[in-house]
């Protein structure tokens, strides 16, 4: 609860006994007119019993100049931080892409190292020589299957059956349906 001040604004007024800074349920605000005795005048400087006339305090404007400057400052700061923030986010995405590329390259390197380790094994080299170059070990009899050239020539001369055109397929299905209904 705020303290009430005198009309001159010099300090708090006297409080009623029992108010003690707490709001009371029985307390009501008097909004009626203030009685000012016109016949009785007090000499200057004396504080008689006459009540001072109430004046309305000016209402604060909805948007003060300080608030306008603060809003403008916030807008300017927001605009000033958007470009660096955008650059930061772009750089973060580039870093993530580069890290993914590095991880893929490391996986490729690991696979190449495994392949290299295989080629260093003499048994793997023998197996590859047998498969790729048809090498045989001493004492083994090589078997080489030679394809029949006549069968290959006949397969090359036989043309593949041309697929039916779509309208031929459609017409044959219509004829098949017609044949089923006439039975």
From TrEMBL:
Stretches of Low complexity bias are at 18-27
UniProt KW keywords: Cell cycle, Cell division, Coiled coil, Membrane, Transmembrane, Transmembrane helix
Which GO terms are recorded in the biological process aspect for this UniProt protein? Answer: cell division
Transmembrane ranges, per UniProt, are 63-83
Q: What is this protein called?
A: Cell division protein FtsB
Presence of the UniProt keyword Iron in the record = no
In terms of InterPro entries, this protein maps to: FtsL/DivIC
Q: Which residues lie in coiled coils? A: 88-115
**Keyword Cell cycle, does the record have it?**
yes
Q: What is the lineage of its organism?
A: Bacteria, Bacillati, Actinomycetota, Actinomycetes, Micromonosporales
Annotated region Disordered: the residues are 1-60
